[in-house]
Amino acid sequence: MTEDHSEIFSGFLTAIQKISEELNIGNLVLISTEGEKGHNCIVVPQFPINFVLLVDQEDPVHIWKEIGADLAQRFLKKFQPRLNSHDFSQYEEFLPTIKKICSADKYCE
Length: 109
Known about the structure:
Blueprint: H1 3-23, E1 30-32, E2 39-46, E3 49-56, H2 61-79, H3 95-103
Antiparallel strand pairs: 1-2, 2-3
């Protein structure tokens, strides 16, 4: 995702989460698209971050929610309290963790 799209997506998620809070209707946890290339965007809220996974529509959402929660915990353990939303380069060292978990799962490509 390009940096411009990342900012737009982040703003979109924030807006939906704020509306959900104001209406007291629960947390945003899933956005879906339908069609030949349909996907599920799974949001794992883990204060102070949201861990977001984009998976194929056929993949089991409940399994990916568990994987996302595990990844979010590992991410926070590694980077908290030095979280910096302005410098994403520091998080590149987390990629091997994601790849390791993903390589053990039959749904990753």
